Give the backbone structure.
Amino acid sequence: MKTAFLIKYAEIGIKGKNRYVFEDALMKQIRFALAKTEGNFDVTKEQGRIYVIPGGSYDRDEVIEALKRVFGIAGICPVVIAEDDGFENLARNVVAYMKERHNEEGLSFKVYVRRAKKSYPISSMDAASELGGRILEEMPQLKVDVHHPDVLLSVEIRTDIYIYSEIIPGPGGMPVGTNGKAMLLLSGGIDSPVAGYMIAKRGVQIEAVYFHAPPYTSERAKQKVVDLARLVSRYSGPIRLHIVNFTEIQLYIYDQCPHDELTIIMRRYMMKIAEQIALETGCLGLITGESIGQVASQTIQSLAVTNEVCTLPVFRPVIGFDKQEIVDVAQRIDTFETSIQPYEDCCTIFVAKHPVTKPNLKVIKRSEVKLQEKIGEMLQTAVESAEVITVS
Ligand code: ATP
Ligand code: MG
């Protein structure tokens, strides 16, 4: 018998036209996730269900791992597909299925039949009780429990018949592409990849920007960010990464402004550049990995001063997380080991010993006046000379 995967997804709020958008985006993301696995797959939709049907050999565990990274999937059910060649054959197939998988002494089960093919000659209720009886006849060590069965055996009668008993939890969320696009400020740290993952989980397509400062930051530090983007793209789909050379701007700020204000001023220019690229590329928001109080530049006063330069909404999904909570997610999504590789970050290079922790917007703006002469042109050059690479 053929094997396949039935994809379950949460249907709340996706009625009518939205439903098609949701399903089509989900199928597209499933295809993207499976493209990297061994084997060919047909991803189809039939009567409100999505199926992944392998054409030829495949690695079951690899496929399940790939599907577990597709947002929008609530559950993955490995199914056996039998031809509809009469009830007697169906009963035989169902008993064989149970014998192979659920043969344990004392196990309780329930048969659930869903009849999508209304022309089938037996009602769902009758088919369920008849199949239950056949299983008990041949496997007397099992028992029926209709309220809390150990095994819920589902039999779906369509053109073919689908038999399954296992639901592997998916990641939940919404399929990427159903909620617009946002620009992730991606550094080599632990927090920003997690932030990108969390927003992608809500169906948002991700584009990313990284600021580097050669020769103060190395080629290896940049490669680490590319690697992180690739790890996030396993969930989000392909990411266009804009790599902005920030050296001139950083040196200019360093020359002109008080050193204890350096980080905050630098962060304001990062946000400005990110927003400009975001607007040019159709992004509807910015994403950062900021968390209240984590460092001097993330006190609530610093966040307010940084935020002041933006007109787009800034999404900060880990804002209320403790470091350990962010680390937990990073480990789960497999970005942690890459994030902790010790390469320099452009923010840390010119950092003052005692940066301001409660910046005053008026004071900061006054300092920025000293940049008036050249900063406009420098920002423009930084945006125009950005290197763009697509990672997937
Ligand atoms: P992360 O672990 O994400 O690097 P962090 O704890 O090091 O964060 P900061 O360095 O203050 O914190 O950066 C705060 C946020 O600003 C980051 O989460 C990221 O979104 C953005 N950011 C910082 N540095 C860069 C950079 N070089 N390129 C792009 N974005 C950056
Ligand atoms: Mg950082």
